[in-house]
């Protein structure tokens, strides 16, 4: 496990591609999260939040979960205004962009307080934002490898963009919080917050309970990417994209290659 974690962390540091998973791929989520935790420790990078994603229905029973999670490093988070443009750096193995709604926490969530429910976490949220997940991996083909290799490589997260806060989001129907993604001028996805089962608070409850089982707490100010709203849209360096949340944000994105750090 240490060798796998070191290989993943080093490939990310050097922004180099691994032709395949560096060692035996984890067979279950417990092994995958153990590699993830070790990779975070080896990297030495601060964690500023977490991403949550759905597991495809055919795999849920076998894996015993309907969602997965991965850390978001602080140095990969970008803040965005209501409009403008940003560069989006991606790793060479796999890259995609996803329109998501992003929670920012108002208070810590202590693992000892688990189990958490969506209702119990309503007062833990400071704000909900329009945002984008930069999904990216150093492992070639990891976007098609399944949940366990994805979890092991930090949930295939390469960064997050946090846009403007959505006022009065608690009183809005999920289907009314819309999103749209275009890549190189072509519309590739349209959707809404209704794509996330149970809404943002359900994603947060899943994450808080998962982390509590691993002895990890959430901090005030942490961000949570709650899940894609209109699809996972593959991109590569040199392409352009636009993430639109009507009435909230319209952001132009230029995809670039990650640089070594």
TrEMBL record:
InterPro entries: Fumarylacetoacetase-like_C, Fumarylacetoacetase_C_sf, Hydratase-Decarb/MhpD_sf. Residues 95-255 form the Fumarylacetoacetase-like C-terminal domain. Signal peptide: none annotated. Gene3D superfamilies: Fumarylacetoacetase-like, C-terminal domain (3.90.850.10). Keywords: Lyase. Pfam families: FAA_hydrolase. The keyword Lyase applies. The keyword Lyase applies. This is 2-keto-4-pentenoate hydratase. It comes from Marinibaculum pumilum. The lineage of its organism: Bacteria, Pseudomonadati, Pseudomonadota, Alphaproteobacteria, Rhodospirillales.
